[in-house]
Sequence to fold (284 residues):
Amino acid sequence: MDDHKDVLPLRIVAARFININEQVGLAELDRITESASRVIHKRYTILLAAFAVALLATAITLIPGLLLVASETPGADVALIVGLVCFALLMAVLSVWRSFQYGGLKASKPQKAVYADADDPAARNLERLFAVLQLESTPRAFYRFRNDTRRYVDERYFFGSLRAAHVSKSSALRDSLFGPTGFWFARELFLEADIDQLITSAKARPSRTGAPKTYDYTDAVMSLIEHPFVRSLQIGKRGNQKQIVALLEDWYHSRRRPAPSETQLSLYAKQILDVIAKNRATKS
Fold:
């Protein structure tokens, strides 16, 4: 009898590894990848700043230096050397980030994955999926071009410490990912396989528990009542919901409480904004 194979986004496959209920698995996946993105946020921000400075310095020194050399202008060699030094610094910044992910410039072996809590059962099941994908004998994941042509990726794509980015909705984590070749890699990956058989071979144990914990956010919302941003908030202004989410996250973190997923916080923020809009409309 032929194996039953499905073509699914790798994110859906990961959710099934985490929980037998796909929607619950997706919520758990959002939680662990969002927490992982917070772990690397500061380091990645520093990298981007260094990259931007090095890129700007290279642009304003190397290109003019080449033009001066081409025109045989006196002193052009000095300008060119400065430009080359800036370019070397640019490459050094990229090399540091690649080394952080792959343990060196080449992806030669799997690295320890970045998770906020590596002992989280959901993270452990996710790692079991990646352990299978790191084998050359496993069906290869692929991404699609616009004409639906498949481009397969090899097992090294899952060696990096930020491999959770492959199944993350968080742009902070996904955009920071380097592929084993080239630089940034943020394509959506798919997998064609018998998922149940894959789960069995990986010795994963998808949770059978129900929906994730419903957070009591009453205290978090109360903390916003007299907040300066909320009092000066302009109804309908773009970015309001994102700012409310950030304020709620800060409240949970400041009290060392586990924060809901970004999806849940976005829902809370929308409800808060709806109430504010309704109350202000009543007063006017």
In short: The beta strands are 6-9, 142-144, 150-152, 190-193. The longest helix spans residues 22-70. Residues 218-283 form one domain. The CA atoms of residues 226 and 232 lie 10 Å apart.
